[in-house]
Design a protein that fits this description.
By secondary structure, this protein is α+β, with helices and mostly antiparallel strands. Helix content is about 35%, strand content about 15%. Strand 7 (about 155-160) and strand 8 (about 160-165) form a beta hairpin.
Length: about 300
């Protein structure tokens, strides 16, 4: 990226009311640097579509794959709303979202960047052992490693690792430290493997699957109510990730579900629970092969995976 974040940029002096002045100023400075930005609401997710854009009634951006005919002035269509246009960022239609925003996000692919989102300490350790050094940004639970160059985005390419670039957004947490380097082949290969390599011992396909019940869990020590409550809470978490992170969320839910059954003699029907998590992830846009791999990795992350019936 040839542009640099400049807090002293002229457009950053635009007068805006508190309490969101600093966030808007940061957004304007990023826009000056050629980085498309957008506000995030509570839960660190984009603002929902307006009534005119609900269910793509506006004709815009089908499946979020390409810009469509939508010219809505509001913050609609998730990551695709990210912009570098000061007139849009400071427009009346964006005033309420800025006031209610809980965070600032940017579209890495739109700036020619790729972010390797490392969600925990184990993922950070893997990156330090595997990836070329580049600019890093600390996050609540891990780090963002930022490379020059754009690629396809993918969730859960390995446990705790998401790729954020095209058709995705990433929270802005500051400029980070270190020298940004070119996107390496090893990062691109993570997505290629996700497309072509089936997971060992992967959860079964949808063919012939039914919802979990006691008939597939004859060795489970938990009540049916306990299992169903945990499952429904997990499915709700996955379905809530309508814009980004559903693959990683599916991995975490599968890991949690498997951990609940470590003391069971088995079988507990974990493969059926896993398929229901896969189906939830697919329903919010995660390609089935990725969802299956994420859930398989989650189930195999605990000893309970050995007791899948």
């Amino acid at each position: 990226m040839t542009h640099q974040y400049n807090p002293a940029s002229p457009s950053a002096t635009l007068t805006v009311p508190d309490p969101y002045r600093d966030r808007v100023r940061a957004a304007l400075s990023l826009a000056d640097a050629g980085v498309p930005v957008l506000p995030l609401r509570a839960g660190k997710v984009p603002f929902g579509n307006c009534r005119a854009c609900t269910d793509n009634a506006c004709g815009g951006r089908p499946n979020m794959k390409a810009a469509g005919p939508c010219r809505c002035p509001a913050v609609c269509h998730g990551w695709a709303a990210a912009t570098t246009h000061v007139a849009v960022l400071a427009s009346p239609a964006w005033a309420r979202p800025w006031r209610e925003a809980q965070a600032l996000a940017y579209h890495p692919g739109g700036a020619g960047l790729t972010v390797v989102d490392l969600d925990n300490a184990h993922a950070v350790t893997w990156a330090r052992d595997t990836l070329p050094a580049t600019r890093t940004v600390a996050t609540t639970r891990g780090e963002h490693w930022i490379y020059q160059g754009a690629m396809r985005s993918a969730n859960a390419v390995r446990p705790g690792v998401d790729i954020k670039s095209r058709m995705s957004y990433t929270r802005w947490l500051g400029p980070g430290t270190g020298t940004m380097t070119r996107l390496p082949a090893v990062v691109c290969a993570l997505v290629e493997r996700e497309e072509t390599t089936p997971a060992r011992g992967e959860v079964v396909s949808s063919s012939g699957r039914t919802e979990w019940d006691r008939s597939v869990a004859t060795g489970c020590r938990h009540t049916e109510r306990f299992v169903r409550t945990g499952l429904e809470r997990g499915l709700a978490l996955v379905r809530a990730r309508t814009e980004s992170g559903a693959g990683s969320q599916a991995f975490g839910v599968a890991q949690f579900l498997a951990a609940q059954h470590t003391a069971c003699p088995g079988p507990c029907g974990l493969e059926v629970l896993g398929w229901q998590v896969v189906a939830a992830a697919v329903s919010v846009g995660v390609p089935e092969p990725y969802a299956r791999r994420a859930v398989t990795n989650g189930l195999s992350g605990t000893p309970a995976a050995g007791r899948v019936s």
